[in-house]
Amino acid sequence: MKRYLCSLLATVALLSCSKERSGSPALAEKSLVDAYAEILIIREQGGLLNQDSSEIRKRTDSLLFSHHTDRVEFEQSLEPYKRNLTAWKQFYEQVGRRLEEIQKDTLRSN
What we know:
77% of the residues lie in helices and 0% in strands. Helix 1 (2-15) crosses helix 2 and helix 2 (29-48) packs across helix 5 (85-109). By secondary structure, it is mainly alpha-helical.
């Protein structure tokens, strides 16, 4: 749990480094929620498997490419949520629900 929390905080810190501001998100909300949840999983798996940061970054970039975006657009899409605490909380609740869905799907398939 401590490792998950550290990974989560590192993800938020990394994604909040963007200085560019965008009026409207580059990604649709559902796609953004899916990508964010999957990035959290990639980072957690990377920590558990002792992967180096370049491997985690490569997997993250590949995931973003599959969502037809890149790191810059992804970070720009998060900006409107980060500027509004209520919106960020709602977004993060959606991410939590998405992670629960992924977990259930994974358990069903095993």
